[in-house]
TrEMBL record:
The chain crosses the membrane at residues 12-34. Residues 451-527 form the PAS domain. It comes from the Bacteria. SMART domains: HATPase_c (SM00387), PAS (SM00091), PBPb (SM00062). One of its GO terms (cellular component) is membrane. GO terms for molecular function: phosphorelay sensor kinase activity; protein dimerization activity. Keywords: Kinase, Membrane, Transferase, Transmembrane, Transmembrane helix, Two-component regulatory system. It comes from Paludibacterium paludis. This is Two-component sensor.
């Protein structure tokens, strides 16, 4: 893995884009570069290969004096498949190789890395090999794997100076202690001499160095995560060659490439136990240890226990010292990188230490803050005030907090929150000041105060009492806010209601507390809205109040009800007066209706009795006259016949008038009256009428029977006038102390909601009659689906049933 800066990445991206564009043009416009069998032609049939002598990539065999190595074998393999001829040019360093390129002595160079500096001289193929970096050290008995993330900060890492791995470690692990070495060999020697704990070497160089006897005790103990990408570099005036090399490299068998890597770059590291030097040193060490142990046993037998105790104490002290040093480093790192500004001020009022947060907060650098008087940041801090603050904090262990402001480097003021405490460090005494930027806090506080003032102003001008109820978890709700209107409306000060257990309930009228408790219990149990109307004891007597509160759930069982209490006494009095007026009018209407029905019954009896008797006498007299008439007077006979016919017609009219005023069939019961009216309607309109009446039905008071009969008459009249029905069904049933009359038709129907009462006086009359009877009216209808009108009235349970 190669890590580059953003600018280097942009340069590489632009370069790759240009290179691919050039290659594409070359492939499209110069097909002569590739022969029919896909091999290179023209000027690329001979390569001058420049290579740096750096085993295991390239080196000279001391016995055969032949050039060998991983890069040498790779170039030979590619050249064989091309085919091209090769002339080798060897150089001791990369600098001399670049100089040879500038002189024009080299065409390609394998095993190079693509870096921003190298892109100025070379064109590169795609990577053909990745070389990882390993952590090398003296293994312990546990075989522990070393991880850079958990490595102690006191560990020393030896790295080759000037390489990419050094930059990688500086960027990703700046806290680790790095020991620069000239070469990979020097890095391993530093580990052997204990000048470093570990060394970081690329795997290829490590494979060669570990073959040497002096490094046999070393072993790979971890992985770094940093990888070299090896490529074939081509002179810049051969832009068509890198794509061809990429194609050749991709066509190489992966087994051949793995074989090259395994033989040259990743040979099996010999175990430590395979080294004769290891066993020789082990024997010497064991012998020396046994000899020394015998001498120590003979010379220190008496003082062994004391020595062991001292040794244990020293080891414990060493461990504690290491832990303390580690804690000190961690504490220093935490203080330096804290987001809270930290200042150490001595007794003279001068700043001895300031972390990075203070520098960023106030705009000073480290040199400016060193020994800067604290009065420069806080001009109001006089020597007397400083001495008083020092003595106050020195004599008390507790910290002090406050809000102040500090002058920044550019002269502007910064509002800060200040925590101050006293610290003794050795013989020195310091005042520790913690600074935090409270600009946003002050802005939020000002906005909150403005919002609260606006809310209180709105609540004070609302014509009602604004309140807030809060409930946490299962606790009883309490009033958290009450507007000042409570004093004028209920005669109770807001302070007396806030937090009280009874709250608003104390002002509810005793007769209405049951309904208030039921409404509030439902709202509290379900965390729902509160909606209640009732009487309350106000400052000027009983008032009618309307309470509406909306519930808000804040989570964790926290519920808030924001509501308002309105004084609706005026509207309630108007409503009561209107209801009383309506009741009075309804009673008057009932009285007038009763008087009218009584008058109709009286007129019906007079018409039927008086006028009927007169017509009967008149018909008898006509019959006597007709009998006493002499035969042969045909003119008078015809006149008598006409007069008799008129008398019969008058009889029919008198009977119809009497029935219209009060049908005599009502005396036979409401069931018979309904059946009689249905037959009359069927005969008059020609519409079939189906009647369902119980065989036994409780007798009704005359007012109820007349009322139901008139409702039936009005309903059938509406069917005849408006419904355009082909069938009517009439039903009467009695159940659970109520008598229900239903009239259904299959006519055109209508929308009851959109129907105007001003255009349907018949329905208005029916509704009023139902109300007078203490019943209820139901109309079910839709356009095109007919209409069902149902009337239900209460009946006395002790009425006797009649047949």
């Amino acid at each position: 893995m190669i890590l580059t800066t953003p600018s280097e990445e942009r340069i590489i991206a632009v370069f790759l884009f240009v290179r691919h564009a050039v290659v594409l043009i070359a492939l499209l416009l110069v097909p002569a570069f590739v022969c029919a069998n896909g091999e290179s032609a023209g000027k690329h049939d001979h390569w001058r290969v420049g290579i740096v002598l750096e085993p295991p990539y390239a080196g000279i065999n001391p016995q055969t004096r032949a050039l060998e190595g991983a890069d040498v074998e790779l170039v030979k393999l590619v050249a064989e498949r091309w085919p091209v001829s090769i002339t080798w040019r060897t150089y001791p360093s990369r600098a001399e190789l670049d100089a040879a390129l500038l002189r024009g002595d080299v065409d390609i160079a394998p095993g190079l890395q693509q870096t921003p500096s190298a892109l100025r001289f070379w064109l590169f193929s795609e990577p053909y090999l990745r070389v990882p970096h390993k952590i090398v050290g003296l293994p312990d008995a546990s075989g522990r794997i070393v991880d850079l993330e958990t490595l102690p900060l006191s560990s020393r890492l030896a790295l080759p100076a000037g390489g990419g791995v050094m930059s990688f470690m500086e960027r990703n692990y700046p806290e680790l202690w790095r020991v620069a070495a000239g070469t990979e060999r020097m890095a391993l020697l530093a580990v052997m001499r204990r000048d470093a704990d570990y060394a970081i070497i690329d795997e290829a160089r490590l494979a060669t160095l570990l073959k040497e006897p002096e490094f046999s005790p070393l072993a790979v103990v971890g992985d770094v995560g940093y990888t070299h990408l090896l490529r074939i570099a081509v002179r810049k005036d051969w832009p068509e060659l890198p794509p061809l090399l990429d194609a050749r490299l991709q066509s190489l068998p992966s087994a051949r490439l793995d074989n090259i890597a395994e033989r040259w770059l990743r040979p099996g590291h010999p175990p430590v136990t395979d080294s004769p030097l290891f066993w020789r040193r082990l024997c010497y060490g064991l012998f020396a240890l046994a000899f020394g142990a015998g001498i120590m046993a003979l010379r220190q037998r008496r003082g062994r226990l004391a020595l062991e105790s001292r040794l244990l104490a020293e080891r414990q002290e060493g461990r504690e010292r290491e832990v303390a040093e580690e804690s000190l480093r961690l504490a220093q790192y935490s203080i330096d990188n804290s987001t809270v500004g930290i200042l150490w001020v001595n007794w003279e009022g001068c700043i001895r230490y300031a972390n990075r947060a203070v520098h960023q907060m106030l705009g000073y650098d480290g040199r400016q803050m060193r020994n800067l008087p604290l009065a420069a940041l806080e001009p109001d801090l006089t020597p007397a005030r400083w001495l008083a603050r020092w003595n106050a904090l020195r004599g008390h262990a507790t910290e002090q907090y406050g809000e102040s402001r500090c002058r920044k480097a550019d002269g502007h003021w910064l509002p800060v929150g200040v925590h101050q405490g006293f610290l003794r460090f050795g013989r020195e005494e310091y005042l520790v000041v913690y600074l935090s930027d409270i600009t946003e806090r002050l802005r939020a506080r000002a906005e909150l105060e403005e919002s609260e003032a606006r809310f209180k102003s709105i609540a004070a001008n609302v014509p009602g009492m604004v309140f807030r109820l809060e409930r946490n978890h299962e606790a009883q709700p309490r009033l958290a806010f009450v507007s000042d209107a409570s004093q004028a409306l209920l005669g109770v000060a807001p302070s007396a209601m806030i937090g009280a257990e009874d709250g608003i309930r104390r002002a509810v009228h005793p007769d209405d507390r049951a309904s208030f408790d039921a409404a509030w219990r439902r709202a509290a149990d379900e965390a729902a809205d509160l909606d209640w109307q009732g009487r309350m004891d106000g400052a000027d007597g009983t008032v009618w109040a309307d309470i509406k509160a909306r519930a808000r759930h804040l989570g964790n069982g926290h519920v808030i009800w924001d509501g308002i209490l309105w004084d609706m006494s005026a509207s309630k009095r108007s409503e009561i007066e209107l209801a009383e007026s309506r009741g009075l009018l309804r009673r008057l209407s009932a009285h007038l209706e009763s008087v009218r029905e009584e008058e109709k019954a009286r007129i019906a009896r007079e018409v039927h009795d008086e006028l009927g008797q007169i017509l009967t006498v008149l018909r008898l007299e006509m019959s006597m006259c007709e009998l006493s008439l002499k035969p042969g007077k045909h003119g008078l006979t015809e006149r008598f016949a006409v007069m008799k016919k008129l008398i019969e017609q008058t009889f029919l009219i008198v009977r119809d008038v009497a029935s219209a005023l009060r049908p005599p069939v009502l005396d036979a019961g409401i069931g018979s009256a309904i059946a009689w009216q249905a037959r009359r309607f069927e005969g008059r309109s020609g519409i079939p009428c189906y009647v369902t009446v119980p065989e036994t039905l409780a007798s009704l008071p005359d007012a109820h029977a007349i009322g139901l009969f008139r409702i039936l008459q009005e309903a059938l009249t509406n069917v005849l006038r408006h419904a355009q029905a082909s069938m009517v069904s009439i039903g009467l049933r009695s159940e659970r102390g109520r008598l229900t009359l239903s009239i259904a038709d299959d006519g055109k129907g209508f929308d009851p909601e959109a129907h105007s009462p001003e255009r349907s006086f018949g329905l208005v009359g029916i509704r009023e009659r139902v109300l007078l009877l203490g019943g209820s009216l139901s109309i079910e209808s839709q356009p095109g689906q007919g209409t069902v009108l149902s009337v239900s009235i209460p009946v006395e349970e002790d009425m006797k049933e009649t047949g």
